[in-house]
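Subject: mismatched residue count in predicted assembly?

I count 340 residues in my input, but I want to confirm that the predicted structure covers every chain. Input:
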Amino acid sequence: MKDACEKWKEPLREAALTGTPARDLEEHLRGCAKCSAELGEFRARAARLDALLPQVAQSAEPSAGFQARALAAAAAKGEWKRGRPLRAWTLAGATAAIVMLLIGAAIYRRTAQAIPPEDIAVVQKLAEWRAPSDSLLVTPGQDMLRKMPRLGESYLNVPVKKNEEE
Amino acid sequence: MNALIARTEAHNPEVGFGERIAENQRRVFQIAYCVLGNSADAEDVAQEAFLRAYQKFDSLREADKFRAWVNRIVFRLALNRKRGYRRRLARDTAWQTMETQVMVDGAKDAVQRVMLERLRKEIERLPKKLRSVLQLSLVDEMGANDVGEVLGIPAGTVRSRVHTARKLLLEVMK
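Triage response: the counts match. Full output below for your records.
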């Protein structure tokens, strides 16, 4: 009997909380005095719980001077905020940084413009210069070695592109 | 106090902040109280929440925005303070004992006092997800939508978790 009623524990709790037992539970309750008594007990507990739960928070109230204290703290914070010279210093710092940036940019532009075009041409020529011995280092095998042969191929089977030869 | 409010608002550009405190103070205090369990710390945390709201008041002028923001911030501040408590276990125990005493000063029935004490302890033992939802739901004026907004969950989930929490409490509150 005890084991048979074990499965009704959860529906009994549900019924106590929602107020309406499920249809199958209702049928079971008609024939089971133990579960009916248990439902009564759960319902009483639920009623006690419902009466107690709101008291956990709603019995608590802030003290009478709370609003005044919060306002005074906010006002003090506001005064401090207004009184501190942080904003003025921040603005001064930002202005100084912008002025320094502008001066730096002007100096850079002037230096860049000061290089004569002949010098630039010489530098470009130097950059393009190649040693005459570079051509001696070129070997016919280089083109073939550019590409790794696949498994089963040999280096000699690598087709040489005509365009590259030209 | 009205004079102080008027003086504060006359000196500050943040006109209307006093009104916002008046509208929200009870709920904000109760949120902190539910988490912390004692009035002194709840007031501290509530005041800190209003102070932070004051600093952001330019963007929180609308009543609804203010309400939602301050609910969230006070809950978070209260949780942070509670974490601090846990580190100091001795004090934690002290507040629980003292708290129940203070909380039930008005309760005439001794049985009810004991039950309330037990209920608070059982709520503390609930899984965190259920506990947060239940604590917020117990606060006056906090509907499922408000609770969901604070915790970032849908109102339906709030209702279902409250139901589960009640079911667990029903089992333990014999």
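Chain B has two domains: 1-89, 104-174. Marking this ticket as 'not a bug'.
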